[in-house]
Every structure is written in structure tokens, then in C-alpha cells.
Amino acid sequence: MLKLAVFDFDSTLMDGETIDFFAEELGIGEEVARITEEAMSGRLDFFESLQQRVGLLKGLDFSVVEKISQNLPYMKGAVETIAELKSRGIKVVCFSGGFRTATGYAKNILGYDADFSNVLHEKDGKLTGLVGGEMMFSHSKGDMLVRLQNILGVSKEETLVCGDGANDLSMFVYAGTRVAFCAREVLEAEANIIIKEKDLKKILEKI
Known about the structure:
Strand content: 15-25%
Distance between the termini: 10 Å
């Protein structure tokens, strides 16, 4: 019986990549999207790619960051799926290699219990190109999942994880139910549930 469900944010709970939306404001959308794709496919170290991409955002007004973060397109079925899982007594958490401006705002809209993500450093109202936080490395999600399981007293078999990219692999190791959602091949290879359609409610049919 499941007790804990952990979802990735970008391209899982949200339809797109938050950092790509930021980059579009600076006219560097294609460049940043290319680096994002390399990282999510496992061809580029996640930490290095994150530093590189955030560095390119230097100078962006933080007010623009907040506005974009509060107007993101959420994935079809996200609200309903989280509500159903919670009705079954399952704790629902968001792990994101993205940013607190987005995951913190979405928490009350989508209904998950907690979010762990990264923080964009801003000074004098503009991004400095620096970033810090809980989800900086390729191993971060797995590391945080184990700590969460220990705190909550939840086993691997009682844990569901859902993501789309290579930086979700580390949490797949510690979960009995592993959902690859519209995912890269590298993640599908380790999943035991594969969803090809952009509708999170499809997960409910499988568990």
C-alpha cells in the first residue's frame, strides 16, 4: 500500500521547463532549451547544466521571474491526481531541479504537501546568475527521498515516484512504483509504469 508519492515538477506537474520560459524573456530560449534537453537525456551533468543555464539568466528582473512562475501551464490531471492520492492517505511531495518561485507558488494550487527545489539568487531586483538549494545534483532527489522515507517511516515498496528526465533516476532506485511520464528513454528503461499521454490521471489507472 502506497504511503508516499513524489513528483518531479518541470514537464511532469507542469507542462514545460520553467527555466526555458525565463530564457525566452532574454531571447535565449533555444540555447537554454538545448542545454536542458542534454541534461534531461542524461548526456550532460545536471549540476553543471544547472549552473550554466542559470548563469545565462543573469540580469533578468526578479519581478519577471515571479510573474512567469505564477503563470505556468500545469499538466492536465495534476490537481485531480494529487487530490485522489491524498484522499487515499498518501503524502504527496514535489522534488524539482527547478525553482522555489515556481514550486512554492504551485503548492497551494496543485495541492501537494511539500516542495523541495532550488533558489535563484537575486540582488537589487535582478538575477545574479547564481543558484543554490536542495536539488542541485543528479543524486539530489534520491538523497532527499531516502531522508524523507526515514522521517516518515515509509519503505521503498510504499513509495511512488514520477518524473520525466535523467535527474529523476536517483529517486527511482528507492521506489517500488516508478512512473516514467512522457519521459526520456533513459528513465523509461528503469520504470515499471510508463505513461505516454500528457494526462497525469493515467497514473491512477495503474496503481
